[in-house]
Amino acid sequence: MDTDSPEELLSEIRERRLGVWGVLQIAAGTGVAVYAMWAGILMPGFRKVPLRLQVPYLPASRAQVRNVMTLLHGRSGNVADLGSGDGRIVLEAYKKGFSPAVGYELNPWLVRLANFHAWRAGHYGKVSYLREDLWKVDLSRCKNVTVFLAPSVLTLLQDKLLAELPDDALVVAGRFPFPDWTPSQVEGEGVDRAWGYNMQTLRQHHKQEVQKEPSQP
Ligand SMILES: C[S@@+](CC[C@H](N)C(=O)[O-])C[C@H]1O[C@@H](n2cnc3c(N)ncnc32)[C@H](O)[C@@H]1O
């Protein structure tokens, strides 16, 4: 192909039909771009987390934050948000008097963003955002725990919380309830709803259920 000018070359490219190879190249290029976006911006730090436990970032709505705070009302002490995203729950809880207020988040971009939000609100250094895998955090001293995670993950998280949290802990779930737990309180409607779970009540309920089960011969 002899082309005399860039314009001629361009029109030649425009006129040529895409072959199978061309389509494959575009598909592969798009795939790589989407993966790079997923791995580099949306889910960095998740390589060691099994796929079924990976939860993408979606910030809580204002109404959701308000409902979570309503359920925490009257309580005090520390608070931990598991998967803290841009830090909004932790920051709001700190403003309501909870301290230490800690967020655990794997995505380093979100940890930076959360710190920026804390700085902008004048609370930088007073709240903590730790780049840690929530599955590896020791929760045995947590009095107030908040979560906004996918339902598939909540099933497994129930076991961790039951095994580690003290009796006087309260767990507040936003958007999705824990599948096997009965909440002691519910606040809000629709996608903004939040559920409060009292650990002592849950354990008593759990014990009664086990006692009710017929014993094996
Ligand atoms: C649905 S967002 C909720 C963000 C925030 N809690 C809120 O209510 O706005 C879930 C967050 O959990 C984080 N996450 C998911 N799995 C995690 C893990 N294993 N350890 C730490 N953070 C995790 C995600 O990166 C994401 O930011």
Automatic annotation (TrEMBL):
Gene3D superfamilies given in the database record: Vaccinia Virus protein VP39 (3.40.50.150)
GO molecular function, one term: protein-lysine N-methyltransferase activity
Transmembrane stretches, start-end: 20-43
GO biological process: methylation
Keywords tagged on the record: Membrane, Methyltransferase, S-adenosyl-L-methionine, Transferase, Transmembrane, Transmembrane helix
Source species, domain of life: Eukaryota
Family: Belongs to the ANT/ATPSC lysine N-methyltransferase family.
Alphabetized PANTHER family for the sequence: ADENINE NUCLEOTIDE TRANSLOCASE LYSINE N-METHYLTRANSFERASE (PTHR13610:SF5), METHYLTRANSFERASE DOMAIN-CONTAINING PROTEIN (PTHR13610)
Name of the protein in its database record: Uncharacterized protein
